[in-house]
Model the fold of this input.
Amino acid sequence: MERPARRDLVTAVALAALGAFVIWKSRAAADVAFVDAGGVTPGTLPTIYAVILVVLSALLGWQALRGRIAGKAAAFRFPPLVWARILGTLALLIAYAVLLPSLPFWLLTFVFLAGLFLLYGHRRPLAMLATAVLGTAGLELVFIYLLGLPI
Amino acid sequence: MWQLLSGFASVLEPFHFLMLTIGAALGILVGALPGLSSPMAIIVLLPITYGMEPLPALLMMVGVYVGTKLGGSFSAILLRTPGTPAAACTALDGYPMAQKGEAARALGLATIGSALGGTIGWIIAVAFLPLIAAVAVNSGNADIALIGTAGLVMVSAFVRGSTLKGLIGVVIGLLIGTVGLDPITASERFTFGSFYLTEGIPFGAALIGFFGIAVVLADMELIGLRQELVAKAVNMKMPSFREVVRGRWAILIGSLYGTGVGAVPGVGAEGATWLAYATVRNKSKDRAEFGKGHPEGVLAPESCNNAVTGGTMLPMLTLGIPGDGSTAIMLGALVLHGVEPGVLLMRDHADLAWGILAGLFVATIMSFVIGWSLVRAFVYVLTKDRSWLFPFVLVLAVLGAFASSNAMFPVFVAIGCGVLGFVLERLGFPIVTTVLGLILGPIIEYNARVALAISGGDWGTFIDAPHRIVAVALIVLLLGWEIRQAFRASHEARAPAAAQT
Amino acid sequence: MRHWLLRAIGPVLGLALAVGPAAAADYPSDTIHMIVPWKAGGGTDRLGRGIAEAMEAVSGATIVVDNVDGAGGITGSLKVARSKPDGYTVLMNGTSDMTAAMTFQKVPVSLDDFKYVGGFFTSPTWILSHKDRGIDSLEALIAKAKAEPGTVTIGTAGPAGAQMLMAAAIKGYLDLDVRIVPFSGGADLTKALLGNQVDAGIIHAPVMLPEVKEGLIKVIGTGRPLTRLAYEPLRGTPTLKDNGIPVEIGITRGVFVPKGTPDAVVQKLAAILEKATESDKFKAFAVSFGFEPDWIPGPEFEAPIRGELKTFQEIKQKYLQ
Done:
């Protein structure tokens, strides 16, 4: 099977599974119906959406099996460098968010910016440092000093 | 009439005019920074205004409010990350235009669209004040549910490539929107025991993730490519008068949607822009060009989101009902300045109310003037190398997500949506549709269920007024038309698809 | 104004040196963050900003209001409960908003996680109706509900708050067949009332007072006596108890701090809050809001809250399951 078709098939199966999960969970949802709203309960709309999802996913899977690709998908063919950058960015981003409550804003932001500059291929230490310092100073000024963000 | 003129006179007093202009300039800047929004800026200015009279305080806030509507489109066009949620739609055609090297033209169109839309919206609001106030008061939850459903049905306007994947995208958005507490019974849905999820997926943070972080991840492969730097010589040409005239219908339609939807508290600028865009696209002869840089694709949403300001100001001033977050804060500001908002504001504080209305118009003009002169500067700064810009975009995304409710949870939501958006886009699902589902889903569900609660479970409430019957008929027609389009498209696709296998 | 350097060096030094009891002596020496666990622009937010301004005026301290909304006020309350108990992070919330939220949700925070500094604004929760509906009083509403079962609609300013509990109490104690319509918040209910779309609406007083004064909206009943209302003609409005519903519902806005906060700091904060409540500036603001302010010292502020939680839980159990 062609790669795009296989990808679509996998996606279709995953989505159908998600739909089934939602339907299952919605049945178990507590129905506190002290408001008469025409028979619509907390589980109604999610169930409708999930049913539609399952139907559409089935269609998608069926099309994939027949080799008809739905839409142009550039998918995940990246050179390793780009992958490294993507994952590195995510790692730094998550670390930044996790550490923000505990460490000073200016410190983390400086490290974050400098780290990303490095990751994206900059090699001139002076320019990187200058931008990171100025950038951090500007952000600290605007968000912490002026706006008083309790970060 | 008299009152309006004296309102203008007050606005043009030096101090008042200064506050208004400062507000507009700040608004454009705040709007252009991805992550910062109008309510945030206004709430920060609130303590600063304590010492002032109510009018200059409100004028500054109105300035910010109008300015952010324009500023948001600047980063939407140049970075594909909307500065404010209302500008997300502008990115659809604005960004491709910028990619073609026509950044200044795109920004110019956005500026003109905003100015004209704001003006038209204002004229309609002032001229039809009592009518619009009546619309606001008499709009029922059933009406809002119908508007929302109509928007959802127009979804195929946003699908490029595969209708099927577009619809799946919408459903995914709808499902994400159901997470949290049920709006009617407050019972937990899909919260998996997490306390934070009871709030649902915060929309602002999700938008920052889908349109900000996902963009950074998706465009990572463009970093360092020499061609991107040399690129198309950035063309600083601004749009011509003739171009604007050609786009007059888009502007008009956008303005009408904006004023109308803005006057009905509950839908908001975010939803209205998509409706306007879809309508303009469906009516257009060059439908295929939308999404690739069609000027009307910028004019429609921009005039819409500025016309919304005319729409939301009306219920705020005549009824004391806020149309969105910013007007809610403005109402609070009135209270803190000793003015009671409510049905009597226009009567008991006529000077103030008309001053604010006049200020809205002047703010639209000023934001045009300031915006137009800043276009070149923005193009210069924001078309720099992505490898310098992206880190800042990410920091702003984190700060913006945090500031949306001063907590870290939205930041993680943003990151999560960033990853999800990235994955979905790569698989061929247009995340635009997911965002649409996420915006409109909760609105439709809440309003439909309240309407049913009021009517006691009687579904007839959705067709018990002439305008509702029209709305339902329209929805059914639209649905039918879209299904037909989908079939036609798949028939045409059969030929090239056969060649693919 | 911010001490820029302090913010940078403070946390780092703070990690190394424990800041001890000396802090109480010169409280407040830094900016106080008042967390309002609701969106900006709402009723609680306006009151919070009003009192914050007054507190600044009487003490010279800097008070910054942060809106941390979510989960009916619990997200912000949780944040304060878990913050450093040094008196620089305080919560401003309403009593029945908190107890109602705790009644409806399983929340990771309880009334025991706080110390109660004091209350400054008490208001009942009232029932409104549009003048064209023809319902003049709670008695009339009840009569209509009995005569036409299943038709009367009572809107509430939220699906899981004190207002909903009040609606449930009315429905439950009198065994009425009414339809409760939970709106998303005060703004949506206000719109519905102005548009005459429901028979009655339950919302914290004094929201909609201007419309009431104008005669557009009527106050048909109240959860607690309206004797302190700034609009005299309505002070005698019948209460729930007058109509056979043995429940009192109102809301007192006050300030809370995390339970580990030293008593000395709490005393100082209470003193500032008391002075602010009784200041002319805040009095004028509160009256224009609708009620005279009412300083309630810590212990009295805390006393009724647990009883209220129990009452709410009973109502929910009996009538909302």
